[in-house]
Amino acid sequence: MFVWTNLSATLRSIGVASSFLLAGLNSHAFAGFTSDCVESADVFVDDQTGTFFSPITRKQFEAVVDNIGSLAMSKVEVGLKPKSELSTCKGNDFKGEFTGIKNDEGRCVRDESVTNSTQSKSREGAQGLVIRTVWKGGQRDLRFIDRPATPEEAKVNIHLMLRYLSNGTPQMTVRGDTCEFESSANITMNPSFPEQVHGYDQNYKHFASFVAHQLVKLTDVEGCNLGSEAKNIIVQMTAGGKKQAVPAGFELRSREADATEDERYERASYPSDNPELASDGKAVVGIFNRPTELIYRVEHPLYPETWEEIHIKKIESDYICGVFDLGEREKSAIGSQLMDIPSGSLDPAILRFRLDMGSSFFLRNPGLSFRVRWLSPGPDATVVSESKFVMASDSVDGGIAEFELAGAPPYPTEILPGRYKIELDWKSSLDTSVIKTISFFWSSTEGHNVADYFGVLGPLRLDFPFSSGRRVSTYIMREYFLQQRLEKELIQWEQWPEPHARRFADGILWHFRNAGALPYLSAWDGKDGVAAELVRALSVVTADNDWVITQDAETALEFLSKIDRIPDNFDRFIALRRAMCQLSSQLEGLGEPVPALWMDCR
After folding, report:
1. What pTM, to 2 d.p., does this model score?
2. Which of 62, 374, 430, 471 falls 20 to 30 Å from 579 in CA-CA distance?
3. SS in 3 state form for 305-341?
4. Which DSSP category does 600 fall into?
């Protein structure tokens, strides 16, 4: 028999959570749950004061926790027993009457560990106290039991001792498997003085206030967090109701649904970090045993900490109860949580390209055709969508063909927002069976790539009227993105008249630092290709007599410093070797270190 008392109207965040962002919980979030959705923990109390469980102390305790946000509710329960304590029964067999336990069939049987002294008559009417806490990650009922813990119970439960020292100072000590806590020795308990709950000289109005505030201080001690922690769940993501491998470049975040922005816990998960689950459209994220919502959001690749929330889903309370309840519900309700991104929040599976119909390469291959695949990240990439082959010359506008490659049935035409690996197949005509493939990364969300169109074969552009690295990079993307990869020949932009060669180099270095990739594809794959373009760009910018090192250049030099051998293409192409030696000489002349030994041409 028990009575719940709602004690707290407003919640304050207490301490700092080590495993997730700092937040608290307001009263609305708390009110969304019933008692069977909250974990509980036994706290065995060795009350040497003889007052903690008395009616007057309990009433004082209820009054003080009304002003402590992390202590939300309390109840009094008669005959409170440990959760793990065996439930005894009375039986009778050929040996006579006995006290035993019920077996799996519900029959009362003898057990050597059970005696008539399991609970003495003096304890049968004892009152226990249950305090609901909302500390650092969840809610938990602390079940204060009016007796010391046995040695076995002390291993897995909290053992709290209350006493007065010889000088009258109250003391609370807590011992547990991971917890060691002792209240300050400089404490007074005088109702005539103002209450001081922090600092060196603490004073409390009465014993109940002392205990309540020590429980709060307990949460700041490593290993003594009595509030339940967040638990991980598996989220199955779908796109418009259809299963799809998830991309990179997005974050799955969980947060308290009813708390304010500055008073809530949050946890972040990056599904692409677990390719095996990602390929199956799944992700792992932590949730809380209070109203929780999931957020699918993408970060702009060129503007760090700029996020766009794609979709928000509130998790049903019954599911959360199933995850956190230690009873029968836990056995049947835990499963993956479905998060469907509706069609209106998906991105179209479309890539746009530009091609100069007058380029010598196209004139040699007038039937040039392309097909694209969108793949999930990871070593075992999964095909998410695929287009049909499209011949570039089907769309001509003033000598420049602009064409789209779109996902086509049986593949989806809409995909989850994020970053994909793109495989672009191309062949000289639709009739040929010889197919070549190049790959690069692409963000599906509009405006998340430097240019809307990717240049396949660009016009011979020698002038770049803008000095902005980003604007020049946009030109490079729109006109030269794939040209070197298709032709397998270098664009000799270093020989263009100034300032256009330098601006071209600035565009490459800007893009590499901000997007983490080249602004156009090299003639070579992997690090060899990246190194070739960065060395060429650095050799041009460092030739300027007024050049000073920039963040863009530092990022490129740092990348080169991590390559421990000379790339093969530098041995085979004299133009690359010449650019490398020129860069090394110019860096030495400026007093800057050469980034790698293989670049030293002396």
Report:
1. 0.68
2. 471
3. CCEEEEEEEECCHHHHHHHHCCCHHHHHHCCCEEEEE
4. -
